[in-house]
Each structure stands twice: as structure tokens, then as C-alpha cells.
Amino acid sequence: MKPGDVEEFFRRLAAERPNPRGELEYLSPYTLLVAVVLSAQATDASVNKATPALFAVADTPEKMVALGEARVQDFIKTIGLYRTKAKNVVRLSEMLIAEHGGEVPRTRDALQQLPGVGRKTANVVLNIAFAEPTIAVDTHIFRVGNRTGLAPGKTPDQVEARLEKVVPDHYKLHAHHWLILHGRYVCVARKPHCLSCVVNDLCAFKGKTTLEAAPLKAKRKKAPARMAKGKSRKKRSAKPSPSRR
After folding, report:
1. Roughly what angle, to the nearest 10 degrees, separates helices 119-130 and 156-166?
2. Which domain holds residue 183?
């Protein structure tokens, strides 16, 4: 995608959603970190159903450690991989206390040292909690980057590197949110909503639907099946029933 088109791409996304925000519910950088760890291979909606009760009793690393792994499991049983995630949440809480004074670190390297925290999770925390212009590439952004031609790449890291290079600086802070929301609600995996897409004309997706291609051809009615050769078109007369004796 040409630089001018990239600028226009984000100008339109920004006009559509002037104040984008993540959909995970949280109270602090720590609860955001926990929520993002729990959201791996799960939907934000499923996490948001479980975390209010959890955060009501454990909204700090100290409280989470005191709660313990078994009790954390009880709160997050509705989330996939809850046993592993409960273990990671307690362990990362212990590390925050031991190595960071109970605070969430503000660097990607330090965040990625925590159990259950990869590059994507670190980028989300840095962007939302600390307003860093990072771009976390999840399945939605990976799809949008490749499908539109904005940032093609074979891996999430390649797409992230490309986005870092092409996204104008004045759009980088919210680029993550604009792209993820666009992929989640418009440029969906199956049957993308191209006709309602504000960047339709800038998109390189060959399978997109345009306004010009919108009218569908009327479906042809199926012709009646031909009768097999040798069979009469006339209904055979019913055989007379035998007379009763």
C-alpha cells in the first residue's frame, strides 16, 4: 500500500472511531496484565465475565498470591486453559513482588520475563496501561494487515515490523485499537462486511465486495428434470380392481 493510501486508511479509521479503546475490563495496570494473560486463546467477553469477581477479592499481586492457585482457578473456570492460566497469574504476581516492588514493569523485555507473557501481551499492556505506541498483532490484526495489503507478512512478528514501518507516527498510539476493532467487527474472517467498510477502495483484497459488484444476479429457476427415454409423458391409467366374488 502506498504511503498516501496508508495515511488515508488511518484517517478514515480514526474518523470512524475517534476514541478507540480495548474491550477488556480492568482497574489498574496490574489487573490489565492479568486480564490480557487470561485472554490468550479466549475471547475478551469470556474474560470480562470472570474477572469482576476475581478482581473484587484480588486486585493486587499481594492479594492474588494470598488467594492462591486453587482459588484463582475457581474464579476463572469458564475461561479456556484455566489451570495453566491460574498458575501463571500467581507466579507472575510473585515475580512482580520479588523483582518489581509489586508494580508492573514498563519495558517489553521485563514484561516478557513474566510467566504467561509473550510479545503480544507485553505490547497490549505497554499500549493501554502506559500509552506506548506499540502494536500488538493478534489474529485480527494479522488478517487485516495481510488481506488489505497494509502490512503483509507470514508471521505476527513480520506484520508487526511492517506496521511499525508504515503507520504514520501520529496514528501509532491508537493503531492497535483501530486495526483490532476493524478486524473484529468489519474485516471478519468469514464473509467480511466490505460494503460497510470505510477503507474498501484502499483495500487490496481480491475477494472483496464493492458497491459496483453488489447487485446479485437473479437465481435461475431450476428446469424440470427431463423424463427418461422410453417413459410415456401420459399418466398410466389405473388398472381395474378385480371384481369381488
Report:
1. 40
2. 3-19+135-194
